[in-house]
Write a structure and sequence with these properties.
This protein has 245 residues and is an alpha/beta fold. Helices cover 47% and strands 16% of the residues. The chain is built from seven helices and nine strands. The chain is globular.
Length: 245
């Protein structure tokens, strides 16, 4: 049943993505906020299909941050991007520059004025990232980054990169850690399988500016990883009760 529902969701996902991406291409001619409206429409369509086709819903814990803050989130699946774009207002995401080369998707990212970085650029890439983040904060846009740089399967040892520390030390704003357990439900090869249940995303208490780099990294990792582990335990219990562990 999980496989069948996942197949049906994939069809819904593909159809909704094509209709919205192609049918909405004209918004690229409008101001940036029009692209945000389109992206939120896509996010709602994806979450609608997950709930009513795959039986996968979600809960949001903690206050969703607003305005000029730095948001550092655990990353386990594509779901994480979908939910953060929906929940945050006028968010500015830190993404891989290579994503801008994807037809339609890359065009919308460019129009959304994301921070696109070249991972091979090292010091120059960090300098560019900080400069663009400061410009976004001047417009009161929240900055969000996946501090491990890529998706990590549940239980994988954490690997936090220095980019998030560069932003924290240079921007001088609160950093809101985000924990989640999406990798338990959006799973399988290339994330094809969608298990029924509830993904939980939790916005944790902010880390105020002013910590030294090492202290910040330790605090950020401890908060995200400890809460993520708690959410994973709860999620595994739910899946086990359904015979889906």
């Amino acid at each position: 049943m999980v496989f069948l529902r996942s197949c049906l969701f994939f069809l819904w996902f593909a159809l909704a993505s094509v209709v919205i991406a192609v049918g909405g291409v004209w918004v690229l001619l409008l101001p940036r906020r029009a692209t945000e409206v389109l992206s939120k429409t896509w996010s709602r369509a994806v979450l609608f299909g997950l709930k009513w086709i795959a039986g996968l819903d979600y809960d949001v814990l903690g206050p969703v941050p607003k305005g000029g803050v730095l948001i550092a989130a655990k990353h386990m699946s594509m779901w994480d991007t979908v939910i953060l774009y929906l929940l945050l207002d006028d968010a500015c995401a830190v993404v891989k520059r290579s994503l801008l080369n994807i037809p339609f998707y890359g065009w919308y990212l460019w129009k959304a004025d994301v921070i696109a970085i070249d991972r091979e650029g090292k010091a120059s890439a960090l300098k560019q990232m900080v400069a663009e983040a400061k410009a976004a904060l001047a417009e009161r846009r929240p900055i969000f980054i996946f501090p491990e740089g890529t998706r990590k399967a549940p239980g994988t040892p954490p690997d936090y990169k220095p980019g998030v520390a560069a932003l924290y030390t240079q921007l001088g704003v609160d950093c809101v850690p985000v924990a989640l357990n999406s990798g338990l439900f959006w799973t399988g090869p290339v994330g094809f399988l969608k298990k029924p249940g509830k993904v939980v995303v939790e916005f944790l208490p902010p880390i105020p500016p002013g910590l030294k780099r090492a202290a910040f990294m330790e605090t950020l990792q401890n908060r995200i990883e400890s809460t993520t582990e708690k959410l994973l335990i709860e999620g595994r219990q739910i899946l086990a009760s359904k015979g889906l562990s």
